[in-house]
Write a structure and sequence with these properties.
This protein is of the alpha+beta class. The chain is built from seven helices and five strands. It has two domains: 5-62, no CATH class; 74-156, Glutaredoxin (3-Layer(aba) Sandwich). Helix 1 (5-16) packs antiparallel against helix 2, helix 1 (5-16) packs parallel to helix 3 (42-49) and helix 3 packs across helix 4. It binds FE2/S2 (inorganic) cluster.
Length: 160
């Protein structure tokens, strides 16, 4: 039987609650185990750290990395930081939104209506010299073009 979200959260609290700045490592652990941070564990985290629910919720929504909803079956990240912007990241993001059926808003990611794709803007993947850079699931890809993006998605995406 797989652990419940509450079990996962309790284990993360037990690992980190005594550390300074425990909230971020706890959120990372929960998202790694569950794929997102379900809203029902926010009160549990808040109680465990003596924070308000609003504070925990604020951190989850502030950081682009954290998701409140389950991700699509294929997660695509497009770098929007300076070096990639200079090499066409805006056009690449617009192309990715169109191809995947995801509409990002400002710095926030979005999942396609069919649940197949999640598209997230990110800020520097450490590949600035080979920009623009994207990640498809966990695969880091440099010097991306719209045409190559479509080929990569065909190869790497989970089936419809
Ligand atoms: S700016 Fe995009 S990888 Fe660094």
């Amino acid at each position: 039987m797989s652990p419940t979200p509450e079990d996962v959260t309790q284990a993360a609290l037990a690992r980190h609650a005594d550390e300074p700045g425990a909230l971020l490592p706890i959120l990372h652990d929960v998202q790694e185990a569950l794929g997102h941070i379900p809203s029902e564990v926010v009160p549990q985290i808040a109680d465990g750290l003596n924070l308000s629910r609003a504070e925990v919720h604020g951190v989850v929504t502030y950081y682009h990395h954290f998701r409140s909803e389950p991700p699509g079956r294929t997660v695509v990240q497009v770098c929007r930081a300076e070096a990639c912007q200079a090499m066409g990241a805006d056009a690449l993001m617009a192309h990715a939104e169109h191809t995947l059926g995801c509409k990002t808003h400002g710095g926030h990611g979005n999942t396609s209506a069919d649940g197949r794709f999640t598209l997230n803007p990110v800020f520097c993947l450490g590949l600035c010299a080979s920009s623009p850079a994207v990640v498809v699931n966990d695969k880091l890809l440099a010097r991306m073009t719209p045409a190559r993006f479509d080929r990569v998605i065909k190869q790497l995406a989970e089936p419809a």
